[in-house]
Amino acid sequence: MEDEKIVGLYFERDETAIAETSKKYGKYCYSIAMGILHQREDSEECVNDTYVSAWNAMPPHRPRSLSAFLGKLTRRISLKRLRSLSAEKRGGGEYTLALEELGECVPASERVEDRFDAQELAAHLSAFLRRLPEVERKVFVQRYFYLKPVKEIARSFHFSQSKVKSMLYRTRQKLRETLVKEGDIDD
Amino acid sequence: MTDELLMDAVGMIDDDLITDVEPRRTYRLAPLAGIAAAILMLIGIGVLYAIFVMPSSAVYLDSRESVKLSLNSCGRVLSVSGYDGLDGMTAEVAVAAVTRDMLDSGAIDAKENTLILGTERLSEQERATLTQTVQDVFTESRFHGAIISLPCTDRGAKAAVAEKLAAAVELFSFNDLRQLSANDLNILLHEYEVEDLILSGEPSESGYIGKAAALKRAEANTDLSGANITVTYSVYQGHLVYLVRIIKGDRAEAYFINADSGVIATALKTTPEQLEQTIRAEVKKNNSPDAQSPSGQRTVPETPQTPVAVNTTDAQSRTDQSATEASRETTAPAPLPTAAILPTTAVPFVPTEPAVFEKPTESQTIPTEQATVPTEAEPTPLLADIAYVEVLNYTGAYGNKVPFEQLSRYDKVMNLDGYSDQEKEQLTMQDNRLAVIRSSRDLFYLEAIAYDEGDDALMDYLEDIEETIIPDNVFFRDYALVIAICYHGDYRYSVNSDIQSIQISGNTAYVWINCTYPSNLFNDISPLLHTNFATAKVNKKDLDNIDTLKLIFTT
User: Fold this and answer.
1) Is the domain of A76 the same as that of A99?
2) Which of B112, B256, B474, B553 is most buried by its number of CB atoms within 10 A?
3) Residues A143-155 pLDDT 10s
4) Same domain (yes/no): B378, B343
5) Strand pairing class (B508-516; B228-236)
């Protein structure tokens, strides 16, 4: 079913909207949750929570891209779930690694949330990503949005892992320079 | 919590950035696609090359000159040997153009009116169309031409005809046949049955003495009166000849008479039973072996389709049909003889009585490499008729001269290679000698000039000859020996000289020149200034070996 019709079902408060969403995007959402949580049961619960959140959001929200909307919901819910888990559970996951990597972009002494809210930072990030070459942008999003392991990204793009790591490193350096230049953080 | 806000912000980037994350499928296929495109391009170029540039078939036109038209698979002309400006035309248009040019330039004329059209890798229908094209050109030019049409290989149309004839007629060898002109081959094709080729029109026999004249010559040299006589065309030492068979009682004779000059090349005496075998042995002995013949297959020797049967008595001549049949019977191949009772080779027979037409007598036999230069002791002919000159490879506008009456029978000109033009001029004026041979590209021609000193008009005329020495119908593409004869005498009388034939034997080129005079002047040899040209194709090897020229004047 087309996304527009599925969204229409939500607006009509038709419960088949959930079934159609699961049918079309269930695996997609599950892969995002699994990439963050690494637990089947937690991931399935997050996906179900995603459906509930979508049901509650539509209406009034009408997403331009249903897949991106569901992905963001799944990612946010999974991260929330992850943060609520114990520190031992989080250790070794892609979230922890990704978070440490992104930490290079921010001075250790500074707390990003001290200056910006996430919404404003996301706008800067989007602008930054649009200026990147296509492959670098996709690799960045794969790594830090979907939290995919470097190995998987490398296989997906037919790159070596070292190349992916090198590419991510250069992108993070550019992001840091951009954030400094924009005055988002201090050098 | 450090930087979790940044992680959250990543989760809020624009939708399109999230959805467009998969690597393009073309990443991996791009190189393959490029290779595939390159291969397709190469294949395309190859196909286009095969269609438009690569020769896929050919048309060969053989007359006095040989022309090859290479065609692409669309039937368009890629190239024409010896011609420019025909590329891209259809085969029909190009064949018509070449045929017209051959007619205009004299490569085909009334004397050599046969054109051989051979096609390589073309269908029978396409060959028929091209043949009709040639015929149409002949018709529009009001030319009575003859066409031989057949499939051939890259050896050319003439070689294909020679090959078929050699395969069909045991007497003939491929190497001898290929030396014949297209017209000669056509005459043989009309005499002998050969399959898988199409003949249209009649070959010209105007360049030959004719069967009747050949018959007379044979009759003049035999004492077998009232015998059965048949005359057929044949090949002897690479020349077209009349083969005259004479049978009477237990005696048989065979004469090989040069079709051009009427010279009796050889004569054989034997028995009727041995006649065919003797002829075969003589021909094989003298003809070139077929080392290069592509066809090793031969058919059973056959008697010509329609031998001309002539009886020497009036009574017999009224029964031509029965005579012909009788002749066929008597001249049929005899069983192979045994060595115990029959000679293995025929005894050459030289007629004892002087021939009516030819002189000197030694010219009746085509010289072989073993032939010796005649000596002064030979009988002096009526004309000072044989000039024996050295061929000089000499280039320059220059003419040697000798008064005709001062020519000894075997006058020999000194080699002028080492002389300057001035010295040559002095030699000319002092010695009145004869002949130079010059080369222009692959054309060699001899200029043999004689004139009286003190006659300004003749001098002027000779100067004109320098410019007109090459007749229009001589083609530089072919090796040719061109003879120009100029001699003179009293203005009151005229003499016509026709170069009958040019034959190469060893290092000597023999030129038979037939002179005709008004009957009352036969013994009054005062030939008027007269210029005559003749050409003969000889292969390069033979031409390079020529160092002697013999001019043989006959009346």
Assistant:
1) no
2) B256
3) 888 888 888 888 8
4) no
5) unpaired
